[in-house]
């Protein structure tokens, strides 16, 4: 068996072929023909896949997690849970604990944040929320809930694509929404994001630069008037760089979006509706803290201010709305930001979760910043999410935030430890 071929097959378009390859890789491991790093205490509960935007299919994302030595990994796609089953099956085959999530945007109209930039760089009054620990029994309901979201987003994407086409037409470049959808898994239930729209532009720019035998940075400057910094120029002008398309995507994501972005409306359900839905279906809804940014970890966000000036009021609002968890990336924020956030969250008994926002190939699946003892509770939380999914899949009343569970384990940390222990009892139910 050629293990390299089977690994490459994990990023093929055919899901059945991917899962077959996972089985073959697992068999090689059992026979001793393939070894991975021993599992560490590292965890990551925020991994995007090709069902939103990522270089990795669910199966490949799980393999990368295993190769990185993660103890747990979690899928977190935008407006989609279409990759969850594959993610779980790959995890079971490769011997790593998995958890299911979905990222959605919600309208904060009717709150004091209605006209405020929250954690969304592109739009005021709309915030990203993370659905964590989705029980398998609740996946059909989530798919139904997301169906109108995906349809509304497609309508807006088409209008934004028309704007992009207008920007490119004077340069002799044909562009249409279908170019972006072709780079996605939309037909299989995935989502098309702004990154897809821009990545389709990147493909056009690369083709144009190659036809002109011109450096890609010069083509980008000629078409959009965008001149990348020296580091980015070196990367995108290197034809041997395997990541140069993603590197150019990072440049354009931070500087081009404002030229075509249209505010999302119909695809952003009211935050209270999202809270009610998650409570009904045993899903742990978390607010992803972004924090004021001076330099983007992923290279695709510009310096901006977000929640820090009103953080206490925001956390009080989350409690009022019934959002009982918060998620954040230790690698993204300063020690001072993290210390303040964790203290405020602890005082409000918020369940703290973490994950490295994986959506491009230069990112490590391991967040080294999280190896500090300061973040022990985040590692416990990752295992607790898996224990929650197992229990809530049996009976929603056995979930982490159910009334019955809170009565049995009123202390948040005791509850986390309890559900983390439950995660050790085997695969998904």
Explain this structure.
There is one protein chain. The chain is of the alpha/beta class. It folds into 3 domains: 35 residues, no CATH class; 256 residues, Alpha-Beta Barrel (TIM Barrel), CATH 3.20.20.140; 112 residues, no CATH class. Helices cover 47% and strands 10% of the residues. The protein contains 17 helices and 7 strands. A 7-stranded mixed beta sheet has the order 1-2-3-4-5-6-7. Strand 2, helix 4 and strand 3 form a beta-alpha-beta unit. Helix 1 packs antiparallel against helix 2, helix 3 packs parallel to helix 4 and helix 15 packs across helix 17. It is globular and about 70 Å long. The model has no long low-confidence stretch (mean pLDDT 95).
Quick take:
The protein is of the alpha/beta class and 429 residues long. 47% of the residues lie in helices and 10% in strands. Strand 6, helix 14 and strand 7 form a beta-alpha-beta unit.
Report the biggest beta sheet as strand number plus sense, adding barrel if it closes.
Answer: 7 strands, mixed
Shape: globular
CATH topology description of the largest domain: TIM Barrel
Q: CATH H level of the largest domain: which superfamily?
A: Metal-dependent hydrolases
CATH class of the largest domain: Alpha Beta
Total count of domains: 3
Lateral arrangement of strands in the main beta sheet: 1-2-3-4-5-6-7
Strand content: 5-15%
User: What does the radius of gyration come to?
Assistant: 21 Å
- The helix/strand class is alpha/beta
**Number of helical stretches of at least 4 residues:** 17
What's the total count of β strands?
7
CATH architecture of the largest domain: Alpha-Beta Barrel
Q: In percent, how helical is the residue content?
A: 40-55%
Mean pLDDT: 95
State the order of secondary-structure elements, H for helix, E for strand.
Answer: HHEHEHEEHHHHHHHHEHEHEHHH
> In whole angstroms, how far apart are the ends?
32 Å
Q: pLDDT under 50 segments (min length 5)?
A: none
């Amino acid at each position: 068996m050629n293990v390299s071929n089977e690994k490459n097959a994990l990023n093929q378009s055919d899901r059945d072929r991917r899962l077959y390859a996972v089985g073959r890789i697992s068999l090689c491991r059992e026979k001793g023909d393939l070894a991975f790093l021993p599992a560490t205490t590292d965890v990551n509960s925020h991994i995007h896949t090709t069902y939103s935007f990522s270089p990795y299919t669910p199966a490949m994302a799980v393999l990368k997690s295993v190769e990185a030595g993660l103890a747990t990994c979690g899928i977190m796609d935008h407006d989609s849970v279409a990759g969850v089953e594959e993610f779980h099956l790959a995890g079971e085959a490769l011997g790593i604990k998995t958890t299911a999530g979905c990222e959605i945007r919600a309208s904060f109209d009717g709150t004091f944040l209605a006209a405020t930039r929250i954690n969304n760089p592109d739009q005021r009054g709309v915030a990203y929320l993370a659905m964590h620990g989705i029980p398998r029994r609740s996946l059909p309901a989530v798919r139904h809930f997301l169906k109108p979201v995906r349809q509304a987003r497609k309508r807006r994407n088409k209008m934004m694509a028309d704007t992009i086409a207008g920007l490119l037409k004077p340069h002799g470049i044909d562009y249409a929404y279908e170019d972006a959808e072709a780079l996605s898994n939309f037909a299989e239930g995935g989502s098309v994001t702004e990154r897809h729209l821009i990545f389709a532009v990147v493909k056009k720019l690369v083709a144009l630069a190659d036809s002109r035998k011109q450096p890609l940075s010069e083509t980008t400057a000629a078409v959009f008037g965008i001149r990348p910094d020296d580091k980015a120029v070196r990367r995108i002008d290197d034809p041997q760089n395997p990541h140069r398309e993603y590197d150019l995507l990072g440049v354009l994501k931070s500087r081009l979006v404002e030229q075509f972005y249209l505010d999302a409306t119909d695809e952003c359900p009211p935050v209270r509706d999202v809270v009610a839905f998650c409570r009904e279906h045993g899903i742990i809804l978390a607010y992803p803290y972004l924090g004021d940014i001076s330099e983007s970890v992923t290279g695709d966000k510009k310096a901006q201010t977000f929640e820090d000036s009103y953080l206490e009021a925001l956390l009080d609002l989350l409690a009022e709305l019934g959002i009982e968890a918060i998620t954040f990336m230790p690698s993204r924020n300063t020690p001072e930001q993290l210390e303040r956030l964790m203290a405020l969250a602890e005082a409000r008994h918020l369940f703290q979760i973490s994950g490295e926002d994986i959506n491009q190939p230069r990112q490590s699946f391991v967040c080294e910043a999280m190896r500090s003892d300061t973040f022990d509770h985040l590692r416990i939380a990752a295992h607790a999410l898996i224990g929650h999914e197992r229990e809530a899949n049996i009976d929603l009343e056995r979930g982490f935030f159910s009334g019955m569970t809170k009565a049995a384990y009123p202390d948040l940390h005791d509850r986390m430890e309890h559900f983390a222990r439950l995660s050790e009892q085997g695969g998904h139910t």
